[in-house]
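Continuing the series of single-chain predictions for the mutant panel. This is the parent chain; the variants come on the following pages.
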Amino acid sequence: MKNSIRIASGQGFWGDLLTAPLAQVSKGHVDYLMLDYLAEVTMSILQKQKNKNPALGYAKDLVQTCEEVLPYLMEKNIKLITNGGGVNPEAAREAVFAVARKLGIKGLKIGIVVGDNLLPRIDDLIADGHVMNNMESGEPLAEVKDKLLSANVYLGAGPVVEALRQGAHIIITGRTTDTGLTLAPMIHEFGWSMDDWDKISAGTVAGHINECGAQASGGNFLGDWKSMPDMANVGFPIIEAYPDGSFIVTKHEGTGGAVTRETVSEQLLYEIGDPEEYITPDCVADFTSIHLEDLGNNRVKVFGITGKPATPFLKLSASYADGYVAFSTLTYAAPEAYEKAQAGDRILRARLNNLGLEFDEIRTEYIGMNACYGPLAKPIEPNEVMMRIGVRSRDYASVERFGKEIAPLILTGPPSVTGFSGGRPRPSEVVAYFPALISKTVVQPKVIVEEV
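Parent structure:
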């Protein structure tokens, strides 16, 4: 058993800083590189891509990243763990194998984790009595099953641990929890029992800190953000983990940003509901038990974490087609920019109503005035205001006609208008989110390890 391991965060979402993974494996010592690519909406996007082309359905940035980092992984024996397989881990594996062949790398073992995709099984699961009610509305999944675009359960760290046990250098999963990508190497290296709830919870907290990339090392920092140095070269966080469940959050020397008690605290509060019950497939972590100690020099110790047994359920993250949406903008200049923008909105809404168009929602934001703070915005006299208006409807024709009513406002509405570009907005499909719970007993993850 190792005395400690270093797990580097390399991506916090699909579209994060492309230079981060290479920096993490080249600027100092790490044992693992964790790349988190998935969000709820990402799965539906990837599923639509796979429906059009069976060779797609994964985060394509992963291929470019592997071409950059593979030589370092092999030379330094760094293992890569990612959920970038999306809805097609098999295709992602083949793409990475192709990169390895291109680079002349042999002996590379890639493990994939499958079994999270329940879309092909939905009808059978419903027929077997699994209702899968929406966690927010109570609506049964059966009411939207014919419109489903994706349906994936959040798997935990267990299958990743098994892939590591089988000697995989790279592990590509589908919808695995963000926290599980960091927790798995801690379980594997330290020999933790899967029911040692305090240690599993500690690893889960470490994963929560690591999952959003530089958000734990100075990015998006709400405190004294001006004090964050050299953010152009921000260093992503690294978890320095120990067998007793304690760990230190740090980053490579010479990189920008900062790891402090404040930056780590902010990330700990990210997307937290009940802090006493942070529920994952692996445990229920108690965030109120977390202790932080700022050691200085971009090192924050995290310790004292406790947790409770995992629940018998997995979270199902489904998405379905729910109509159409379109957005457009016009910019009004001073004087009286805000009044002009409001008048433009009133005129447009009256014309849409006169046409008898059907909308589930019409929403207007006044950017530069109150788009961020709404009714809490302080009154100002802006130089310009951008009116951004969007409509949503299950009627495609209504959304399409909305797009034809924007440009006429330029000559038939308030004066001093500019900023209309890109032509008429076209309707795009609305993807609605459907969260539900399902018994762990009906989900069978599978680990496959192959070598190039």
